[in-house]
Structures are given as C-alpha cells and as structure tokens.
Amino acid sequence: MPPRLSVNIDHVATLRQVRHALYPDPVEAARIAEEAGAAGITAHLRADRRHVQDADLEALRRSVRGKLNVEMAASEEMLANALRLRPQQVTLVPERPDEVTTEGGLDLVAHGERLREAAYRLAAGDVEVSLFIDPDPAQLEKLVELGNGAIAGFELNTDTYTRASGLDRDLHLAGLHAAAEQGHAAGFHVYAGHGLTTANVGPVAALPHMEELNIGHWLVSRAVSVGMAEAVREMLVAMSAAAPPRR
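Above: the chain's sequence. Below: its structure in token form.
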C-alpha cells in the first residue's frame, strides 16, 4: 500500500476569501476529495485567518469522514481552539505573519520544551499531535529526545527536496530517507509534505515507513483545470506508481 493522502484545502478558502464570497466552499472540496479516494483532510488555521476560518473547521469536523488534521501554531489561542474542536490530529507548525506560506520546520532545539508542553495539553484532550520539522539531523535528535509520550508523529518538510534538481535532489532525498528511518526507529509515525506534485511525489511516497502525505497547493491548482476529484485521482496514481509494499 502507498502512503495515505491527506488533501489540504487551504487554497480553496484562499480563493473564496479574495472576494469575501460564499464560494468556493472548502467543505464541499473536502467531501469531493474524500469521495475520490483521499484518506483525510488537512487545514491550516492561521492567526490572521487569511484562508481557513473557524467556521470552516467546525463544518469540517462535522463532515470529514477520515482524519481531520489541523495545522496551527502552538499559541494559546490555537491550543484553545484545538481543545474545543478536538480534531483527530493537530500538526504544530511555525508561523510568521509576513510569510507567503510555511517557510520551514519547527526549531525543536530552541523551542522543544514549549512544544512538548503544548503536545501534552493536546494529548490530554484526546488530540493526536504531529510536529512539522525539517529533515535536519539536529532536529531529529531533539525529536527523539523529546520522546513520543505525547508527540505521536512528525511531518517531514519536503520543500527543499521539491526545489532541487539532479544530484542536489538526490542528496535531499537521502536526507529525508535518513530522517524517516530515525524517526520510525524512535516510535514516531512518519508523514511528509510541502511542494509535492505528481512530478516529484513518487520518491517521497516510496520512502521507508512513510504513512501519509499532506498535499494542497498542487491539488487545488490542478483542480482549477480538471476538478478536485480528478486531481486527487491523478495524485493517488502518482503516489502508487513508485511506492513499495508497506512493511
């Protein structure tokens, strides 16, 4: 089996918010994505509410049939929202007001204890926790040190891999491979995402122990041309083509 696909519907909401309209509806997009084979839905609730709104998350919590994964910063506001909403999973991510999109992984070396405290609060509310990190040995070492008592998994940032080419891409892929092995050996679930398309997803889907890929921008962009259902089907085919049997 290839990894599961979690469809990030943020940029469906982005298109809606450009005009402050009622459409397109990210909840409808999520329904179509799941019907086309997605195993779950991801949404990032940002402090500035530039795309996904609180009401969207409430509607998604009621309607998503698979796993609802909410990305958010480890702020008091967001932790309170998560504990009220109780999605199946929260992925803690770094966030800056002036960034176009998430620019890198969490710095566990600098902020690990604060993030572990946030993870314990969420886990106590029956919310599974994942951390978005770069495939940096120092970050993986800190993740292992923090332990999997409240942190269930980690999502590898694939952005640098997707921007590279040739031998550089091979080196970045090797780094992802090593990170996946190290994290799995420490008992964490292994996820990945950021910048993935049908052209580059295969080697990531084939990484050892890879359980889930979170993909949004390419799917929403492709959906403009072929519809969400077809975009999801195309991605699932690309993920399956290179993925070895799961252990």
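Strands lie at 4-8, 40-44, 67-72, 89-92, 128-133, 151-157, 189-193, 210-215.
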